[in-house]
Amino acid sequence: MKFYAHTATPPDGKPDPDQGHWQLLSTHLRNVAQLAKQFAAPLRLSAEAELAGLLHDLGKYRDEFQAYLRGSVQVVSKHSTPSTGRLGLSSHTNNLERCSPLPATMLGYMT
To answer: What is the pLDDT of residues 44-101, one digit of tens each?
Structure first.
């Protein structure tokens, strides 16, 4: 299964149904990690910033978030708890206990 960070949005404002135009989550995490590393270099915090970049969106590996991107679930509130057919998008609900083991495996390959 491919995991995505973002859908593409054409001028009509609706998510592009062609997943070939969507950004892969692994690509997004690596891009953010690289930028964070560069921005933090003057502070001598490159390694910490890079790690934060790799970890910042791990909750998007959740099946619920991927279903949200595909339009399979309804967003009730940005701060609600996920329940059947509804998804809260708060980062507070995106914890590692709800994540598949894939992120840990993926991080092993990235570092």
So the answer is: 999 999 999 999 999 999 999 999 998 887 665 544 444 444 455 444 344 444 545 5
Distance CA 46, CA 54 (A): 12
- Kindly tell me if the per-residue pLDDT of 14 is higher than 90: no
CA-wise closest residue to 19 among 61, 58, 71:
71
Query: How many Cα atoms are found within 13 Å in the side-chain-facing hemisphere of 7?
Result: 17
Residues 6+ apart with CB under 8 A from 85: 73, 74
Query: Exposed/middle/buried for 58, CB within 10 Å: 0-12, 13-18, 19+?
Result: buried
Cβ neighbors of 65 (< 8 A, separation 6 or more) are: 59, 87, 89, 94
Angstrom distance (rounded) from CA 44 to CA 46: 6
Rounded Cα distance, 50 and 72, in Å: 32
Beta-strand ranges (E) seen in 54-95 are 74-75, 86-87
